[in-house]
Write a structure and sequence with these properties.
Blueprint (H helix, E strand, L loop, with lengths): L21 E3 L5 E3 H7 L12 E2 L5 H4 L20
Antiparallel strand pairs: 1-2, 1-3
Length: about 80
């Protein structure tokens, strides 16, 4: 099950579970749309994988399957993709 991490690893922007602006790689590294497009150019800086839109878990499912509260942040932010 997806962890639905609460923030962008680059800029620490809040990404609630119902955010349409959250992007993940196959390892669930999580980034906002601005960092995905402007800084990372669609690639995860951790694994090099594609960043795709994170699905939104239906509200009624969050009660028994809550989103993660663990914030992950890259020290110094993300380096620009080349």
């Amino acid at each position: 099950m997806l962890a639905l991490r609460p923030n962008c690893e680059c800029c620490d922007r809040d990404l609630p579970p119902d955010s349409g602006d959250a992007y993940i790689c196959s390892f669930e590294c999580t980034f906002c749309g601005d960092c995905r497009d402007r800084v990372l150019k669609g690639r995860c800086p951790n694994c090099g994988g594609e960043l795709v839109r994170r699905p939104i878990r239906p509200l009624e499912k969050l009660a028994n399957n809550p989103a993660s509260t663990e914030r992950v942040l890259k020290a110094g932010g993300c380096p620009p993709a080349f």
